[in-house]
Amino acid sequence: MKENYDSLKLQNQLCFPLYACAKEVTKRYQPLLNEIDLTYTQYIVMMVLWEQKQINVKHLGEMLFLDSGTLTPLLKKLEVKGYITRTRNEQDERSVIISVTQKGIDLRKKAKDIPEEIGKCVNLTQEEAVTLYKILYKILDKIN
Amino acid sequence: MKENYDSLKLQNQLCFPLYACAKEVTKRYQPLLNEIDLTYTQYIVMMVLWEQKQINVKHLGEMLFLDSGTLTPLLKKLEVKGYITRTRNEQDERSVIISVTQKGIDLRKKAKDIPEEIGKCVNLTQEEAVTLYKILYKILDKIN
DNA sequence: TATAATTATATTGCATACAATTTAATTATA
DNA sequence: TATAATTAAATTGTATGCAATATAATTATA
């Protein structure tokens, strides 16, 4: 009475290549991000702030799928670097407002070529990239 | 002379949904894996050992895209739990051979239903799943 | 309007990840 | 065959991530 464990084989997993791919791609960012003194997670935070200028921690966490245990220390580091400020919302003292500084805004110019560099090393066709994008967001939309 | 920073918008990134999706899906494993006292990374290590019974750290790292800085402490924890043993290769003392114990083998029965449970919460069509799988492995194959 | 419930961050503890370095063993070569 | 180069793990240091809990502020309700 032999059981079938095929579903537990590494090559039959969908999550594993997802996990590995995310790590490998993120790793490719690091040498580029080192030049502007950011980690990948710090970079996506700055991306949000380049668009919005200002956002509270809760909303930021919802956008990036990160909780306060990750964001609080990370934001303090960005504050030390001078890229953001953290101030309590005067209307609701529970909330902390993150604002980008001029130094943070200036960083965007230096980051400008990073997406293209990463695109090169990922090397998908335009069609594949669009398909991947759609499927990933389908998962993200359903999962929460 | 306004510069165009569209490529730095969060919604134009391919890496971000990849990063977020990997995290969110992995998070869904945790309640299931808690019942058999494994983390996700420990789980994929056990997956390899359920197939191979024995493998050295270097080869394991290549399969899982993990380095010794991650694997060494993780494997020591699996050893403490009694799921694996770590022994030096007598032919080459630099190499450490990881072997699954009977207790480790028995764990597979308890893990059997996990892939299906995860499949439910990801909720892709069979075709989407296959497409995603292929694109992810295309990236992984090229990137290293 | 006191008190309970909820909400937004912060903190703590644990488990990755990885770059960089170290150590020990093996292999290549002058 | 000594010495240099290479290789495989282990170690160190830094940065996430997240569950669980704590704290403080706000809101709901008896």
Give a verbal description of the structure.
The structure is a homodimer of 144-residue chains. With 144 residues, chain A is mostly helical. Chain A has helices spanning 15-34, 40-52, 57-64, 68-81, 102-111, 114-122, 126-143, and strands spanning 54-56, 84-88, 96-100. The first copy, chain A, has one domain (10-143): Winged helix-like DNA-binding domain superfamily/Winged helix DNA-binding domain (Arc Repressor Mutant, subunit A, Orthogonal Bundle), CATH 1.10.10.10. Chain A is built from seven helices and three strands; from the N terminus they run ααβααββααα. The first copy, chain A, has a three-stranded antiparallel β-sheet. Chain A is globular. At the A-B interface, helix 1, helix 2, helix 5, helix 6 and helix 7 of A face helix 1, helix 2, helix 5, helix 6 and helix 7 of B. The structure holds a DNA duplex (30 and 30 nucleotides).
Features of this protein?
Arc Repressor Mutant, subunit A, 144 residues, 7 helices, 3 strands, mainly alpha, globular, 3-stranded antiparallel beta sheet, 64% helix, DNA-binding
Helical content band of chain A: 55-70%
The shape of chain A is globular
Output the number of helix runs of chain A.
Answer: 7
CATH class designation of chain A: Mainly Alpha
The total number of structural domains of chain A is 1
What is the level-2 CATH architecture name of chain A? Orthogonal Bundle
- The computed structural class of chain A is mainly alpha
Distance between the termini of chain A: 39 Å
Main interface by residue count: A-B, 59 and 58 residues
The CATH superfamily title of chain A: Winged helix-like DNA-binding domain superfamily/Winged helix DNA-binding domain
What is the strand arrangement across the widest sheet of chain A?
Answer: 1-3-2
Overall pLDDT of chain A, averaged? 96
Task: Give me the CATH fold name of chain A.
Answer: Arc Repressor Mutant, subunit A
Number of strands of chain A: 3
Radius of gyration of chain A: 19 Å
Low-confidence stretches of chain A: none
Biggest sheet of chain A, in brief?
A: 3 strands, antiparallel
Helix-strand pattern of chain A: HHEHHEEHHH
